[in-house]
Write a structure and sequence with these properties.
heterodimer, A: 222 residues, mainly alpha, Four Helix Bundle (Hemerythrin (Met), subunit A), 6 helices, 0% strand, elongated, B: 543 residues, Cytochrome C Oxidase, Chain A, two-stranded antiparallel sheet, 17 helices
Chain lengths: 222, 543
C-alpha cells in the first residue's frame, strides 16, 4: 500500500498514524459519523415511540394540548433552522474548496441562526412556565384531559429539550470548525471535520422537521 | 525471531501517564481488563451475600430491603460493568486491530474516551452503592423505580446511562475498523469468526444501547422532575417502560453471548487443529442472532398484560433465534469430529461452554413457550437459565479467551496444570451452584425473596456450597495469572501453533502490531497448511 502523504498547507500531518492513506482516513471518519447518526436515530426513536404510543392512546388530549403551543413561533423557528442548514451547506462548500474565509463567514451565520432558534425556544419555555404548562405539581390544564395533557407536555419538554441540547453541542462544534478555518486548515485534501459537522447539523435540523408537525400541528384541524 | 522483541507495547514507555493517556488499543484493553476485573469481584461480593442469606429459610442475615439492594447491585454491576464490556472491550480491543492486520482501531482517541466514560459511569454506580444502594432490581421497573423507591435510583440510572455511551462508541469504533481497515487480501470471508461475532455485537451496541439510554433518561426525568411518562395514576403506562427496556436488554443478552461464541470458534479450531466446519454458516448465524435478537423482547412480558397475539408472535420469534444458536453448537461439535484435540486450559473452558450454553439455550426454549413460562415466570428456573448462558457461557468463554491470548498479551505463559485444575473447579462449582436452581424454580421458588419455605433448604444449601467452590475457581486464575507476569515461561510468537493473524507478530506485539502490513492470501483456520501459506509479509520482516 502506498503510504505517501500529500503535503497539506501549513505542513501539519493530515494522516493519523493508524491509517494507510488520507483516503482511507476520510472513508473511515465518514462511516463513523453515519454510524453515530444511526445511534442518534435510535436515541430519539425511543421518544418518538413513546410519543406514538400515547398519541394513539389519547388522540383528543394530544390535540387539545397541542393547541396550547405557539404555532407561529414554531413555524418561525422551522424557517430559521432550514435557513441554517443552507448556510451550513455553504460553509462546507467553502471548506471543501479551501476558501477558509468564506467558511468562517457561513459558520458564523449558521451559529447566529442556531442562537436565534434557541432564543425563541427559550421564550416559548418561559411562556409555558408562566401558563402552568410545565409538568409537575404546578401543572394546570382545564378540561377533561389534564393527565394525558401532562404526558404530552412531558414529551414536549423532553423531546425539544434533547433537541436543544443537540443544538448547543452543534454550536460548540461550529465554533471549533471556525477556529480551524481561521488557521486556514481546510483545503481540497483536508475538509473531513467540517463536512462531518455539517452532517451532524443537518441531522439535528431533520429531527426538528419531525418534531414540529408532531408537536405543534396535531390539533390544528380541530 | 521467536524471542520477545526488544521494544514492545508494554515497555515502550513507563509511568502512570503513559497508561492513562495512551491511545494504543492494546494498552486500553489492559485498562478495561483491570477495571472489569474489579467490577467482577465487586458484583461477586454481592452474590456471596445473596448465597449466604439463602443458606437458611428464614431471613436471618439481612432484612428484605437490604436483600433487594444486594441482588440489584449484583445484577447492575455484573450486567452493565462486567458482562457487557468483558469480551468486547478487553479481548475485542486487544484483538480486533491485530486480527484485521491494522495498526490500531480507526479512532484511537475515541477508544480511550470510551474507557473514561465507562469509568465515569462506574463511579456513579459505586457512589450509589456507597450512599446506600438501590433496590429496584437491575431492570428498574416503573412505577416503583420512578416514583416509590426510596433508594438511590437516579444515581444508578445515571451510571448506567453514561456507561451506555462507552458501549456505543466502542461498537462504532469496531464497525468502522472492520469495514475500512482490513489488511490487503483480507476479504470478509477470510476474517476470523471472532471478528464476525464482534461485528454482530457492535451492531447491537449501536442500535440497541441508545434506546436503553433514552429509556433510563425518561425514568430519571420522571423521578427528578416529577413527570408522568410511566405513572399509571396520571395516564402513563408502565408496560411501555418494559417494552422500551427489553428492546435493548434482550439484545443485550446477545451482546454478552455473541462475543463468547466468537472466542469459542477461535478456541475450538486452535485446539482441534481443524478448519471450522461450515465457516459461512457460523459467520452468518452471528448476524442472524443479532437481527432476530431485536425481535424477541416481548417474551419478557408474557404475564405483564401483553396481548395474546403479541405473545404468540414473540414466542415464535424466540423459538427462531434458537436456530442460528444451534447451528453454531452443531458446527463446533462437527469441527471437533476427527480433530486432533488437546485439552489445554482454554479448550477445557471451550468444551465447558458448549455443554453449559446448550443447557442454557434449551431451557430458554422452555421459557419461550408461553404455557411453561406462565408456570416458571419469575422463579429460580429463570435465574438458572440466564446464569447458564451468562456465567456458564459468557464467563467461561471469557476465561478461556483470557488464557488463550494471555501469552500474546503478556509475552508469558501461565502455569498449565493449575490452570486445568481451575477450569475443572469452575465447571463443577458452576453446575453445583446453578443446576439446583432449575429444580427450585420448577418447584415454585420465586426469585427476589430473602426467605423461603423450609422444604427448599437442601437445594439452596447445595447452591451456596457450589458458589463457594466457584469462588475458588475464580480466585485461582487471578493468583496464577498475576504470578505468571513475572515467573511465567517466555511464550514466543505463537505458543499454540495457531493460525490467526495475531499470532504472526511477536509476543508482546510492537506498538503498531506489525512491522510490515501483512497480506492475506488464504482463508482463516488453515490448520492443514503452514502459516506462511496464509500470510505474506513484505521483505523487511523476512530479512
Amino acid at each position: 500500500m502506498n503510504s505517501a502523504v500529500p503535503a497539506a498547507p501549513d505542513a501539519f500531518e493530515v494522516r493519523a498514524h493508524q491509517f494507510e492513506d488520507v483516503e482511507q482516513q476520510h472513508h473511515a471518519s465518514w462511516l463513523g459519523m453515519w454510524v453515530f447518526l444511526a445511534t442518534e436515530v435510535m436515541f430519539f426513536g425511543g421518544m418518538f415511540a413513546a410519543y406514538a404510543f400515547y398519541r394513539v392512546g389519547f388522540p383528543n388530549a394530544f390535540a387539545a394540548a397541542s393547541n396550547r403551543l405557539d404555532v407561529t413561533l414554531g413555524a418561525i423557528n422551522t424557517a430559521v433552522l432550514i435557513s441554517s442548514s443552507f448556510t451550513m451547506a455553504l460553509a462546507v462548500h467553502g471548506g471543501e474548496t479551501g476558501r477558509n474565509k468564506a467558511a468562517i463567514r457561513y459558520l458564523l451565520l449558521t451559529m447566529l441562526l442556531g442562537a436565534v432558534f434557541l432564543g425563541v425556544k427559550f421564550y416559548e419555555y418561559h411562556e409555558k412556565f408562566v401558563e402552568h404548562l410545565v409538568p409537575g405539581p404546578a401543572f394546570r390544564f382545564e378540561g377533561p384531559h389534564a393527565h394525558p395533557a401532562e404526558i404530552f407536555f412531558s414529551l414536549y419538554f423532553a423531546m425539544t429539550g434533547l433537541h436543544a441540547l443537540h443544538m448547543i453541542i452543534g454550536i460548540g462544534l461550529l465554533t471549533w470548525m471556525a477556529l480551524k478555518a481561521r488557521r486556514k486548515r481546510f483545503s481540497p485534501i483536508y475538509y473531513t471535520p467540517i463536512e462531518l459537522t455539517g452532517l451532524y447539523w443537518h441531522f439535528v435540523d431533520l429531527i426538528w422537521i419531525f418534531l414540529f408537525p408532531l408537536l405543534y400541528l396535531v390539533g390544528r384541524h380541530l | 525471531m521467536n524471542g520477545a522483541p526488544q521494544v514492545h507495547y508494554l515497555n515502550v514507555d513507563y509511568g502512570i501517564r503513559s497508561w492513562l493517556f495512551t491511545t494504543d488499543h492494546k494498552r486500553i484493553a489492559w485498562l478495561y481488563l483491570l477495571s472489569v476485573t474489579l467490577f467482577f469481584f465487586f458484583g461477586g461480593f454481592f452474590a456471596t451475600l445473596i448465597r449466604l442469606e439463602l443458606m437458611t429459610p428464614q431471613g436471618d442475615l439481612v432484612q428484605a430491603e437490604t436483600y433487594n439492594k444486594f441482588f440489584t447491585m449484583h445484577g447492575v454491576t455484573m450486567v452493565f460493568f462486567f458482562l457487557i464490556p468483558s469480551i468486547p472491550a478487553v479481548l475485542g480491543n486487544f484483538l480486533v486491530p491485530m486480527m484485521v492486520g491494522a495498526r490500531d482501531l480507526a479512532f484511537p482517541r475515541l477508544n480511550l474516551a470510551s474507557w473514561y466514560i465507562f469509568i465515569l459511569g462506574g463511579l456513579f454506580t459505586l457512589a450509589s452503592a456507597a450512599a446506600g444502594g438501590v433496590d429496584t432490581g437491575w431492570t428498574f421497573y416503573t412505577p416503583y423505580s420512578s416514583i416509590y423507591s426510596n433508594s438511590h435510583v437516579a444515581l444508578t440510572v445515571v451510571g448506567v446511562f453514561v456507561t451506555g455511551f462507552s458501549s456505543i462508541l466502542t461498537g462504532l469504533n469496531f464497525v468502522v475498523t472492520i469495514h475500512k481497515m482490513r489488511a490487503p487480501g483480507l476479504t470478509w470471508f477470510r476474517l476470523p469468526l471472532f471478528i464476525w461475532a464482534i461485528y454482530a455485537t457492535s451492531i447491537i451496541f449501536i442500535l440497541g444501547t441508545p434506546v436503553i439510554a433514552i429509556t433510563l433518561l425518561l425514568v430519571g426525568l420522571e423521578r427528578v422532575f416529577n413527570l408522568g411518562f410511566f405513572d399509571p395514576a396520571r395516564g402513563g403506562d408502565p408496560v411501555l417502560f418494559q417494552h422500551l427496556f427489553w428492546f435493548y436488554s434482550h439484545p443485550a443478552v446477545y451482546i454478552m453471548v455473541l462475543p463468547a461464541m466468537g472466542v469459542e470458534s477461535e478456541l475450538v479450531t486452535a485446539f482441534a487443529r481443524r478448519r471450522v466446519f461450515g465457516y459461512s454458516f457460523v459467520a452468518f448465524s452471528s448476524l442472524a442472532i443479532a437481527v432476530i435478537g431485536f425481535l424477541v423482547w416481548g417474551h419478557h412480558m408474557f404475564v405483564a398484560g401483553q396481548s395474546v397475539h403479541a405473545g404468540l408472535i414473540f414466542s415464535l420469534l424466540s423459538f427462531l433465534v434458537a436456530i442460528p444458536s444451534a447451528i453454531k453448537v452443531f458446527n463446533w461439535t462437527a469441527t471437533l469430529h476427527r480433530g486432533s484435540i488437546s485439552y489445554d486450559a482454554p479448550m477445557l473452558y471451550a468444551l465447558g461452554f458448549i455443554g453449559l450454553f446448550t443447557i442454557g439455550g434449551l431451557t430458554g426454549l422452555f421459557l419461550a413457550s408461553i404455557g411453561v413460562d406462565v408456570h416458571v415466570h419469575d422463579t429460580y428456573f429463570v435465574i438458572a437459565h440466564f446464569h447458564y448462558i451468562m456465567v456458564g457461557g459468557s464467563v467461561m468463554a471469557y476465561l478461556g479467551g483470557i488464557h488463550f491470548w494471555w501469552p500474546k498479551m503478556t509475552g508469558r505463559t501461565y502455569p498449565e496444570p493449575v490452570a486445568r485444575v481451575a477450569a475443572l473447579i469452575v465447571f463443577l462449582g458452576f453446575n453445583l451452584t446453578f443446576f439446583p436452581q432449575f429444580v427450585l424454580g420448577y418447584l415454585g421458588m420465586p426469585r427476589r425473596y430473602h426467605a423461603y419455605p423450609p422444604e427448599f433448604q437442601a437445594l439452596n444449601v447445595m447452591s451456596s456450597a457450589g458458589a463457594s467452590i466457584l469462588a475458588v475457581g475464580y480466585v485461582l486464575p487471578l493468583i496464577y495469572l498475576i504470578w505468571s507476569l513475572r515467573y511465567g515461561r517466555v511464550a514466543g510468537r505463537n505458543p499454540w501453533g495457531a493460525r490467526g493473524l495475531e499470532w504472526q507478530t511477536p509476543s508482546p506485539p510492537p506498538t503498531h502490531n506489525f512491522d510490515v502490513t501483512p497480506r492475506v492470501v488464504a482463508e482463516a483456520y488453515a490448520y492443514d497448511k503452514e502459516p506462511e501459506e496464509t500470510y505474506e509479509f513484505g521483505s523487511p520482516s523476512r530479512a
